[in-house]
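Support reply, case 0932

Customer input (verbatim):
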Amino acid sequence: MHAPNKQESLDYHSRGRKGKIEVNPTKPFSSQRDLSLAYSPGVAEPCIAIAEKKEDVYKYTAKGNLVAVISNGTAVLGLGDIGPEASKPVMEGKAVLFKVFADIDVFDIELDVTDVEHFISTVKAIAPTFGGINLEDIKAPEAFEIERRLKEELDIPVMHDDQHGTAIISSAALLNALELTEKRIEDVRVVVSGAGAAAMSCLDLYIQLGLTLENIAVFDSRGHVHSGREGLGESKQRFATEKSYKSLADAMKGADVFLGLSKGGLVTGGMIKEMGSDPIVFALANPDPEIPYKEAIEAREDIIMATGRSDYPNQVNNVLGFPFIFRGALDVRATGINDAMKLAAVKAIANLAKETVPDEVSEAYDEQSLFFGRNLIIPKPLDPRLITAIAPAVAKAAMDSGIARESIEDWDAYDTMLLNRLGQASNFSMSLSERASKNPKRVVFAEAEHYKVLKAAEQAVEEGIAHPILIGRKHIITSLIEENNLELASATIIDPRDQDHAEKRKVFGEILHEKRKRHGLTLLEAERAMRRRNYFGAMLVETGEADALVSGLTRNYPRVIRPALQVIGKAEGVSKVAGMYIMQTHQGPMFFADTTVNVNPTAEEIVDITLLLAEAVKRLRIVPRIALLSYSNFGSSKGEDAEKMSNATAILHRDYPDLIVDGEIQANFAINQEMLAESFPFSALNQRKVNILIFPNLSAGNISYKLLKEMGGVEAQGPVLLGMKKSVHILQMGSSAKEIVDMVRLAVVDAHNKSQS
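Our regenerated output:
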């Protein structure tokens, strides 16, 4: 995946609603009665209850799931002291991660305060609002004192993630690296480059795991931290050793572990060669590690290497820790985050890395053989098991150490609650993006004379998911690229009408004529068709000169699908193609069909559509659970549509007994598990969360997805064309650049799946 350019990043943060977060109500607000309950006069009752019993604030407000991400902007990423306003995009980003990975709500708070006492008093003053405090991007040594005091003076979880997040993740990585190298932590010698908050916290945790002080050598910008140096602050004095090293290179001779939390370029391959057997190197400076990954592994074949980057194995990423640590702490209303909870997180992360990696994780990273070893010492960030591994371990540690105000009795039920709370929407989207970036394809953009298409193509290149083939008049395309400063130098531009492609038009025309000669298409007509973008683009895919086709921004659906069907055609065994929309809901992705193609399918065609959808969802690494919708529940009402869906269900039950499917059923019963269990406990969908909805006709499907998209705040991806021999996907007219990119990701993954089948 390519790093985003400056304009791409600015556009991401500024387009549409500004920033990355918003506040949404959780209770009904559509009537005057709702409003009178939400505010005056009804709100007085919970106020009185809380005044009488302060702990009820957790019962009647959002406090228990609300974390403050607080910074003064004095140590932001690698940018330094840039101020509170400039830190806000980072804090909003942190809020996104809390929500996406652990369903924790966040208010980001940027303080224009550098004085330690003023900072502490301000946070204490606002603390009643929150269930937890996450300190972020505060420079050392002030960060140490701020966190220490707040932990002492507040009765809610407080954690400085820059310190403890990195410490927890790297500790898990260290434990597993030592196990693989058959070394004891008590015996190893560790060299550290960097003496900031993160480095100090890492060493504190390593010592709790068994590392001895005598085996630590810390280097800051002035050199080795030893007892003979003057002017050492309190935090550094703790790690000052009697022995003095003249240089970092000197200290690394024979060392077992290197920990870098400083800056790039400080370590050479020669220094790695001088380390002891099976060296463990954690070069965690971002974006440039202390030593480049490739240089390090070339220096030593026996190395175990970790960085802070996502494009190399063993990424030490704080997102593996902080969302789930706070989740566990909040769920038992812990009064803090103590060492026992941190160590519990360390061991949970380390143990998870040793378990069999689920197929969906391997698929997300396009690695067939992900397993515990030198290239996997910590879990991948997209591993869906992280929340159920870490949050319960942290919650239990809080309970065992006596700082939990609530207890969890049924741990299986707690795991289920965590999974239900999180849903799978975000994981699905991230997994799709990761899979696309691991398998980039040649994608035809058949409407490249439009800015939105070119912008989407640029983003596809930035993400590393596609090699664009831009179809249209070259002078218009190049002019748009130049006018808008788009980075598309690597793209191929083809004008099907250009004389340079006359021979290809002739060859392509002959292929089309052979396919359609018994459907009234003459050779001359076939050659003329190749002057049209959608025909030419489809033929590029059919002949293997491209892998996928994306079109439809400016043409209605039938005019785009017709060339694809005539040139590429349906997959073997498919009688009818179908259209699917992916609805990204809070509870996870929902798949709707048919939404775009079949007007009024028969029962047999409903069966075919259902099977197409089930196969497509399986290819996305999701177990299909299917409801055939109607206005009737299992024969409660008569009518053509109800009978059709009932008959289709009967065929599916008879011929495909392993498929999780039932109908005919009303939409509310299909979605609401409690209603279904109470009224129709016999249903095959009972206790099985539905993720596929099959509609009785095109009107119902098309209306439903559009209503949900426009009124329900749900993101829709599609339409996804199912049943084609090769990857062809048709945009909704007027799609945004973002929607086009979403479709490109799907097209790329689809192309990869078809190439593997």
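We compared this against your earlier run and they match. Two observations from our side: The radius of gyration is 29 Å. Residues 161-181 form the longest helix (21 residues). Please reopen the case if you see a mismatch on your end.
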